[in-house]
Amino acid sequence: MITALAFLLVLLTLSGLPVFAAMMAAAMLGLHVNQVDLSAIPLEIYRLANAPVLLAIPFFTFAGYLLAEGGTPARLIRFSRNLFGWIPGGLGVVALVSCAFFTAITGATGITIVALGGLLLPALVSEKYEQSFSLGLVTSAGSLGLHFPPSLPIILYGFVSGVSIEALFIGGILPGVFLVGSLCLFSIYTGRKWKIERPPFSSSGFLSALKDAALEIPIPFLVLAGIYTGFCTATEAGALTVVYVLFIKILIFRELGLFKDVPKIMLESMKMVGGIMIVLGAALGFTNYLVDAFIPMKILEWMEGMVGSRIGLLLLMNVFLILVGCMMDIFSAILVVVPLIMPLAAKFGIDPLHLGIVFLTNLGIGYNTPPIGINLFVASSRFNRPITEISRATLPFLLIMLIVLLVITYWPPLTLFLPGMMK
User: Fold this and answer.
1) Which of 20, 116, 185, 333 is the most exposed place for a label (fewest CB within 10 A)?
2) How far apart are CA 127 and CA 252, in angstroms?
3) Is the model more confident about 362 or about 23?
4) What confidence tens digit (pLDDT) does each residue in 369-400 have?
């Protein structure tokens, strides 16, 4: 009977059953088999609801949705274009930097592709960038920025793993810059190869763009400074960010109406938060089953038989996490997978801070990995292109990201240098 139910659950999941429903059903089935009271699931959800650090998620999500409205995307692109547009492949660099910044402050890759893709893709094509290159660049850029504050996945990873969120924010800076910079170098190489025309640098244009975006550019730096100096916690930083964004959007730029626009934006952002929280609750219930069934210990024993070195474990972990990134959203992946791999990492002497940055890099790459990376489907829908065309277009960028992943994985000082220096 149990085997039949498990088989039916797999079929329903493959047929499109929502992820949270599949995880919740699997948790209930597993706990029943292990004769554990099902009240363990609501207890885990109650623990989730009482976690103070997770209050930062709705605050930063709401702030991100507010910034996505009005002229913020256009101002960020204009500033980046005046800063980088004069170099070969400059518009590609603009797209990469703008998307990384936007993903960091909104916390969602799909929003970045939808909000900025409609502005960036036509601009790239109009300046004689090939269609395939432009599609691949905008799609791949959607998963950049996960390493930078106030990244929601970093906050959640800190909650699950117990690693300091402040240390994660600092530790993600150099790997994030390295990842974005490597893709920017590819864009510069492409611009030189195609001899794409570029405008000369204009100090007056740059100062004008900087003035227009001066109130929005500092947001990630202010969040990081507030948390790291002890002025505020991550949750308080989220609340202050909402107040600040509301102030500039309503009173300074006058792009949003307090009673006309803000309630609708709040409703849309909370729909996303509600979806995240449902998935998190189901994932916690599923994790509870995995722990009760001693799954982490069984995986540890199995892995110890397969790999005998730290290098081998990291390589196997990279492959596994990219596959996870293809199939699961980053929030449920963190809650389900982190408790499984933390004992493995500790066994082989992998720093949990380093593990967190490697984890996020893998999941970001998984978003772009054919054939089922989520960014591929978002871009296919946004740009009305076949998924196969989007997949082919992202391959050169995916290769570069994989090379960067190996560097981040096997050179821990790239992650650990800044946190160590700040101590």
Assistant:
1) 185
2) 33
3) 362
4) 776 677 777 787 777 888 788 888 888 998 99
**Structure tokens that stand for 153 in this block:** 């996945």
Is residue 124 within 8 Å of residue 137, measured between CB atoms?
A: yes
CB 182 within 8 A of CB 400: yes
Residue 178, pLDDT > 80, answer yes
| Residue whose token pair is 């065309």 | 389
* Average pLDDT across the chain, whole number: 79
**Three-class SS of the chain:** CHHHHHHHHHHHHHCCCCHHHHHHHHHHHHHHHCCCCCCHHHHHHHHHHCCHHHHHHHHHHHHHHHHHCCCHHHHHHHHHHHHHCCCCCHHHHHHHHHHHHHHHHHCCHHHHHHHHHHHHHHHHHHCCCCHHHHHHHHHHHCCCCCCCCCCHHHHHHHHHHCCCHHHHHHHCHHHHHHHHHHHHHHHHHHHHHHCCCCCCCCHHHHHHHHHHHCCCCCHHHHHHHHHHCCCCCHHHHHHHHHHHHHHHHHHHCCCCCCCCCHHHHHHHHHHHHHHHHHHHHHHHHHHHHHHHCCHHHHHHHHHHHHCCCHHHHHHHHHHHHHHHHHHCCHHHHHHHHHHHHHHHHHHCCCCHHHHHHHHHHHHHHHCCCCCCCHHHHHHHHHHCCCHHHHHHHHHHHHHHHHHHHHHHHHCCHHHHHHHHHHC
121-151 pLDDT, tens per residue?
887 887 788 888 888 888 888 888 888 887 8
Average pLDDT value for residue range 4-23: 64
Of residues 395 and 233, which shows the higher confidence score?
395
Quick check: 107 and 61 in contact, CB under 8 A?
yes
pLDDT band (50, 70, 90) for residue 183: very high
